[in-house]
Amino acid sequence: MRYTLNALAEIEDQLGVPLSEMGKMNMSMKNVIVLVWAGLIQEDKEITQEDVGEMIDLENFEEVQGKIKAFGTVQGKNE
Questions:
Q1: Do residues 47 and 54 touch, judged by C-beta distance below 8 A?
Q2: What's the pTM value of the predicted model, to 2 decimals?
Q3: What does the pLDDT look like over 44-78, one tens digit per residue?
Q4: C-alpha span between 34 and 52 (Å, rounded)
Q5: 3-class secondary-structure state, position 69
Q6: Residue 39: alpha-carbon gap to chain centroid
Q7: Among 31, 27, 25, 28, which Cα is nearest to 10's?
Q8: Average pLDDT over residues 17-40
Q9: Ramachandran category for residue 16: left, alpha or beta (phi over 0 → left; psi -120 to 50 → alpha)
């Protein structure tokens, strides 16, 4: 996953909050999908959030959570 400025702007648009307030949000399944989707759109412009939702299941959810936590750690350092 790669988070360019465009990807970060998509996250803000999709979640309706600025990046600086993301740490205050409860993490829902929809939010997980949005975060993963935004990290993948740089490599596949045609990927949809529905595609991402189909890619994540109970077998790989823990790995996905780890990547999201890493994203939050990096984002938190930039505040």
A1: no
A2: 0.81
A3: 999 999 999 999 999 999 998 888 776 665 555 44
A4: 8
A5: helix
A6: 6
A7: 31
A8: 89
A9: left
